[in-house]
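so im writing up the methods section and need the DNA-binding transcriptional regulator LsrR, DeoR family record in one place, dumping it here so i stop losing it
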Amino acid sequence: MPTVPTARHRRFLAQLARDHYLEGRSKVEIGKAHGLSRFQVARLLQEAVDTGVVTITIEADAGEEDGVAEQVAATLSLDSVVIVDIPDASQASQQMGRAALSLVGRQARAGMRIGLSWSRTLDSAAAFTPALPRCTIVQLAGALRLESHRPSSEIFTRLGQDPAVSMVRLPAPLLVTEAGTADDLRALPEISGTLAAADDLDLAVVSVASWAEGLSSVWGKCSPAQRQAGIDDGAIAEVSGRLFAADGSDVTTIDDRVIAVTLDQLRRATRTVGVARGAERARAVRAACAAGILDIAIIDRALADEILAEAVGPGAPAAEPSEFAPSSAEPSEVASAAAEESR
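--- predicted struct ---
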């Protein structure tokens, strides 16, 4: 595994990559500008790829060539969909996380306020955190301690080490046992301030989960009675501890114990990206779209196929519009070869 470069070195790699991949400058030209040989430039460009500073996605593998991404975007009334092909299941979380972070790197602009919700998916790809322009990163949800997974917020630690990033942390767990404890925590200035910072987001990235065993980290931290109460109240999906029904309506069963961004705050974000994997999460993604909290979806091939199958299958309902949902879809946007750069 390649050594993770320092933030300063990542910025240098990003500059070289921008010159070569985006500006079309030759290795010889770049070498002369930086006092390097052509071979040194080649090694540094390869290092940029190996360490995730440069992310290259083959568009045909991302569903563009066969039109799948565009079909899914139209089915869900989303601005765009990115499909991630996963050849190695053991690396699935990291690959999904890398795709999400790569998109953040491409869309980030100087002065933006970007919200990232804690998730195992993003945390597993922390080593591939992009070099960002000067911006503010807001942690949208507290972390969970999960069995067999280290209690980690490495993604936010790495982002906080970037001198261009103003990091707004949420020093609290995502879910607590008692509502009173949650109230006390929300009253703390360092927590209330972070939650308030989520009111005006230019870009937000969240994970979309199903409200079912094995498909939601939050489900595993709730009691059987609380899980069933959520189901009885109509919940089928969860985003950052916030539950919602198939029609996109909020389900507030556990809201009093959750310390995270609200669904309304996500609806107000200029653009929200939802990350989900697995055919079994198709209903959850459709519900998130009905809730009006997604503009872009990053999904794997199995989930894309299931969404389309549900849309055209016998007796399968089409994606239902909601009062929250966008009125129209724009052409699909897929990932392309991209170099992270510092602005």
